[in-house]
User: What shape does this take?
Amino acid sequence: MSKPKMSDEERKQLIERLAADLEDFVAERSIAARNKKATEPEDNRTIDEIVEELKSHPAFMTDIDWSKPLPPEIEGLMQLKYECENPTARAGSYREDGNEQFKLKKYKIAIDNYTEGIKSRCPDAELNAVLYANRAAAQFHLGNYRSSFNDCIFARKFQPDHFKAIVRGAHCCFKMGKFADAIRWCDAALMVDPEHSEILELRVKADKGQRAKERDERKQAALERKEQEEDKKLLDTIIGRGIKVASMKVPKQAKFDPLLLTALESHNPTGAKVHLDQQGTLHWPVIFFYPEYTETDFINDFNEQHCFYDHLVHMFSQEPPAWDVDHKYKADDLEIYFENNDEEKLYKVDPETSLLQALKHKKYLVYAGTPGFILCVKGSKFREEFLSRYKY
Amino acid sequence: MTLDQQTKQHLEKELLPFLTPSARADVKSIAIRYFLEMTGSKEGREFIAEGNSFLPAIVSLTSDSQHDAAKDAFLTLINLTSEDTISWKLMHKEDTSTFGLDILHKILKSDFVFADEAASIVSNITRLPSCAKLLADQILTENSKVTMEKIVNVLCQVNYNKNANLHYLGLILSNLTQVPAIRKIIMDKDRCIVQKLLPFTEFTESTTRRGGIIGTLKNCCFEYDYHSWLLSDDVDILSKLLLPLAGGEELDEDEMEKLPIDLQYLPPDKKRESDPDLRAMLMESIMQLCATKQGRLYIKQKNAYVILRELHKWEKDPKAKLVCQKLCELLISDEPDERMEDLHKVDVPVHLQEKFEKLDLDLLKDFTEEEEKPSSAPSQ
Assistant: This one.
């Protein structure tokens, strides 16, 4: 099929379309930016601010409001009328210098040159477009994709169908991992040149990237759903056992309250957390307090079916702990208590009972996801004192 | 309303002179409104289409500067073109033969006020394959003011025209792609045209637009020479045909990993295509792509079967279920003998064709009965 030449009217329509697209794009982005401010620190001016500033640029002004003080650029322009330096000539010469430096791959200097050219605020829209597009190219070569992308937007503001700026913008989006935006800029480029092979290729890559990103997001969401289900199962099991977790008293009838889970977040040293095994048995991290010596023992994994005595035998049958200076702590000589904080009362636990039975006690409350028990030596002096403190 | 010869002559004499943009505004409005009301009955529509005077007159009013008159003219023509014979006449009579192209051109302008009315007319006209072919030929002439690429671009911009939703443009595209030369244009491998349509298989805002685009894709799948390109990474049509057929059922990790990435880890609340006809069209498209050995092996390798297996359990609509069953069978069956690999080239003897059709009908009957008594005991 022959490729018909673009008529003036079609070109005009295309430019209008591209300009409208860009407006939409900028508007959407500035809304998005306002919604999540300050997450991206690189350029601290918002798009809105820059656009506002651009509106008073001489290239965009259609008439002058004489009742207000003149924007400095206009004043400058009027002064320049009487001076020899013409801003367009100035901008043009900076562009030349910039291009020279660009060819030498001195991108930073080229950027400075283009910036000076832009600062001339010349009324020639096309020249401004070139300055921005060229600065975008230099920024791109330095890997400053975000700055480069902003310049592409401005190049298009001055000249909506500036092809190089559109192509550059598409590449920037791709480099920044903004694949959906990249596709949009590719489509804009394809409106100007529908058979541009580099852009067609980039579009395929961006599309793939976008879909992979969406898949990863779905995968993440699926993972979170699974975790939530497991958490819910765990909670249901705990509640089903009739175990009370501190700050969990209210929602006996409630369905699922994520707040409850934080009540199970353990603050113990190893970060061990209550979990459910394949057989449906709970395993708790448990802490033993020895108030006599202000010492503690931590049991990572206490099977709820196991009884206290087994643990005690295991812990106190061999070498006594360093703090047990009198060697009093023996499995058969220990008494176990727990405290109900609300009442400030102690309750005794028979060492032969399982952890589950102890936890099911109607006064037992699990704090910080880690059940705690107090151990004293039977008949010791300290025990008497300690119990009397609780009026036991 | 009965129209005797006398009334007809009377109408022609009294009202026809006012069906022209230059007529006095008040009488013109009354005249076109009268005709609009007449198109409510078949007899009225046929009367208007008789002879050669009314149709061109009403067509001329569609570009009237007076908003109401132009609108009534468009509405009149929507009703008239619901008759295939009238559409045919409109496209074939010399003085109205470019009307379809003219209003299609206007539909593509973003500020056209009657874009939706015009789109209904063009979609009515192109429903007939012969008329679609005529319009296609006009579009395909060199330097035509309407290009296929433009139609696709406009269709893919959701808020293109603030006066109109342009959903019927989807049906127009679907009708036009009945013509092979048009399909080849939108499948230009050096451009990005058909690719832009793909995301719209999940476009929930309009069944019309979505259906038009799914129909277009199905038509494209009739071009066997393009299958390998359609299935390649450049287009990846399979993902977008399968996605609307997928539900939120949980799949094994192994089964999932083999699927195209668009179908992996779908959320449990993932909705299937709600329209059974569109589900059938999506499956028929995949079926077409299975016609070549290369395509079929690729679709098998991409684990499309898993999606269709889940759909088969869920599907209630008898016709869609039949298509689903056939596609599933095709995907799990062994590869055919060497000389029969390209299914579309295999000559099926007439007696076998008849047998297959009978089998299909029997199955369809079973599915229909199942659907009608869903709570009854399962058959033995």
Chain A has a mean pLDDT of 84. The CA atoms of residues 265 and 369 of chain A lie 6 Å apart. The beta strands of chain A are 244-245, 275-276, 282-290, 295-303, 334-340, 345-349, 365-366, 372-377.
